[in-house]
Amino acid sequence: MATILIAYSTVDGQTRRICERLGQLLEARAHAVTLVQLTDDRVIDAGPFDKVIIGASVRYGKHRRHVHRFIAENSHKLDGKPNVLFTVNLVARKPEKSTPETNPYLRKLLEELAWRPTHAAVFAGRLDYALYGFWDRQIIRLIMKLTGGPTALDAKVEYTEWEQVEALAERISAL
Ligand SMILES: Cc1cc2nc3c(=O)[nH]c(=O)nc-3n(C[C@H](O)[C@H](O)[C@H](O)COP(=O)(O)O)c2cc1C
């Protein structure tokens, strides 16, 4: 049994859903899971946990600053224990951009951090125009048009492959 911190950064909730599923799967393997949302003003200490999972979504090409801050503040503690960093974005729905080596946002984040997780992962996110404000909807729609994705305003598509989430839980359990 391990104590596992799952720290996540989300806007529309898909990264939270992935983390909740990971949490359920890890608890089913008798691990003690603490799920925490990263925010701009919250300070989280990874020190007391045996393993740490960090999940963060992308908006306009970036992961939010509190993700960088959490990792910078905890990097020495993280280096002493098994840890996982995963990204959630829509580019990852394309098979050729769906791995840690090929997803441009994960690559960029790792370059910016100058830190390496024990294990990295990429999940495709969710598209749901109804959730977005006017300008975000226009821009995401344009990007979808340019990249061959759905453009109907009532489109709701979950690209996340849940078997991959299950495989990650297995892996974390074994780390
Ligand atoms: C305003 C906005 C900007 C986004 N920018 C990007 C982007 O630059 N690249 C990308 O691959 N996905 C982008 N996405 C897609 C999100 O990463 C995807 O919807 C993900 O599931 C969001 O996760 P969350 O619900 O945990 O925030 C964007 C979505 C929104 C709403």
Any overview of this molecule?
There is one protein chain. With 175 residues, the chain is of the alpha/beta class. It has two domains: 138 residues, Rossmann fold (3-Layer(aba) Sandwich); 33 residues, no CATH class. It has five helices and seven strands. It is globular. The N and C termini lie close together (12 Å). The structure holds flavin mononucleotide.
How many β-strands, per DSSP?
7
| N- to C-terminal distance | 12 Å
Query: What would the CATH topology of the largest domain be?
Result: Rossmann fold
Low-confidence stretches: none
CATH fourth-tier homologous superfamily of the largest domain: Flavodoxin domain
Based on the coordinates given, report the CATH architecture of the largest domain: 3-Layer(aba) Sandwich
The ordered string of helix (H) and strand (E) elements is: EHEEHEHEEHEH
**In which order are the strands of the major sheet placed?**
2-1-3-4-5
Structural class: alpha/beta
- Estimate what percentage of residues fall within beta strands: 15-25%
| Overall geometry | globular
CATH class of the largest domain: Alpha Beta
Q: What's the short story on this structure?
A:
The protein has 175 residues and is α/β, with parallel strands linked by helices.
